[in-house]
């Protein structure tokens, strides 16, 4: 294989950097996300792991910037410039080495995602960020919508009848959602006996479809993760041997993990393409790690 970039694996490749067959407790997604980050960082830094502090944006800033709707490095860079996050000392230890040091103690169970972060709002924040809009809406009819920075989140007033049962409040909110989801419509409303034209200035936003059911067999998330990890192992091995796929396959224990399919030179090229595609989706991988981490292989 030609055009092997400068990489850290050429001079430093431990078994924990490539033999992901050693992963325990079905921690495949967590391993993949971390190892893709290591691969990406060393590639961007001319084959070395940087020692500079690493930026971690705040979840609230990511939401307001629309990151969870459309993940992208441009958003992270923008938040970094605006200093909406924290800086931490990086740790580039391989996933296997770190977990072995922890004696493979079971990872803490992830609690259900707290979605209240995305809908709760206090009076101080409301006044600080949308005070002028609220004042304008309170003196104009029809009152204009107040949208958050992502263009899909609307600020609305609510009153909660705490004397109701929770299920009754949930039913009422579901009815409100059905009636008030943005439709982008126009019409006429009657106020004090007068017909006043109005338009829904919000763009139409339909309810997203239900997520597809988890696939089984070769299409399952876990099996796809294991496939990418194996491609990453092959890519690191061939980088270590500067493009010589024969030497890479003869590396101790490599054939046992990779399988006979990697006797063919074309598979090493495919492995490189698989890794390159995965690196472009690593933020999505992070989300999937949190949502599918408990999935077990049957």
How would you characterize the overall build of this protein?
α1 (28-44) runs parallel beside α7 (221-240) and α1 packs antiparallel against α11 (282-292). Residues 291-298 have low confidence and may be disordered. With 298 residues, this protein is mainly alpha-helical. It has a two-stranded antiparallel sheet with strand order 1-2. It folds into two domains: 8-114 and 215-292, no CATH class; 115-182, no CATH class. The chain has helices spanning 28-44, 59-64, 73-81, 95-101, 123-137, 166-180, 221-240, 245-249, 254-258, 265-279, 282-292; strands at residues 54-57, 85-88, 146-147, 154-155, 186-191, 194-199.
Tell me the radius of gyration: 26 Å
In DSSP terms (H or I, runs of 4 or more residues), the helix count works out at 11
**Strand content range:** 5-15%
Strand order of the largest sheet: 1-2
Mind sketching the topology for me?
Elements: H1 28-44, E1 54-57, H2 59-64, H3 73-81, E2 85-88, H4 95-101, H5 123-137, E3 146-147, E4 154-155, H6 166-180, E5 186-191, E6 194-199, H7 221-240, H8 245-249, H9 254-258, H10 265-279, H11 282-292
Antiparallel strand pairs: 1-2, 3-4, 5-6
Helix pairs in contact: 1-7, 1-11, 7-10
Concise account of the structure shown:
With 298 residues, this protein is mainly alpha-helical.
């Amino acid at each position: 294989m030609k055009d092997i970039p400068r990489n850290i694996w050429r001079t430093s490749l431990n078994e924990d950097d490539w033999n992901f067959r050693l992963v325990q407790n079905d921690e495949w997604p967590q391993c993949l996300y971390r190892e893709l980050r290591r691969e990406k960082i060393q590639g961007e830094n001319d084959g070395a792991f940087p020692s500079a502090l690493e930026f971690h944006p705040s979840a609230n800033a990511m939401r307001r910037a629309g990151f969870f709707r459309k993940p992208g490095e441009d958003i992270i860079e923008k938040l970094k410039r605006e200093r909406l996050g924290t800086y931490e000392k990086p740790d580039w230890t391989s996933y296997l080495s770190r977990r072995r040091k922890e004696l493979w103690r079971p990872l803490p169970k992830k609690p259900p995602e707290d979605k209240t972060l995305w809908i709760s709002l206090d009076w101080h924040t409301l006044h600080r960020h949308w005070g002028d809009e609220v004042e304008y809406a309170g003196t104009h009819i029809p009152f204009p919508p107040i949208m958050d920075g992502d263009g899909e989140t609307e600020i609305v007033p609510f009153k909660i009848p705490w004397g109701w049962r929770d299920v009754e409040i949930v039913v009422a909110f579901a009815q409100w959602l059905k009636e008030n989801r943005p439709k982008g419509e126009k019409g006429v409303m009657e106020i004090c006996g007068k017909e006043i034209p109005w338009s829904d200035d919000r763009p139409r936003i339909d309810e997203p479809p239900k997520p597809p059911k988890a696939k089984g067999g070769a299409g399952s998330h876990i099996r796809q993760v294991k496939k990418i990890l194996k491609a990453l192992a092959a890519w690191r091995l061939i980088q270590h041997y500067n493009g010589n796929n024969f030497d890479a396959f003869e590396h101790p224990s490599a054939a046992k993990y990779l399988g006979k399919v990697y006797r063919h030179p074309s598979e090493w090229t495919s492995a490189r393409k698989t890794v390159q595609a995965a690196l472009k989706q690593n933020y999505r991988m992070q989300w999937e790690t949190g949502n599918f981490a408990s999935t077990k292989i049957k």
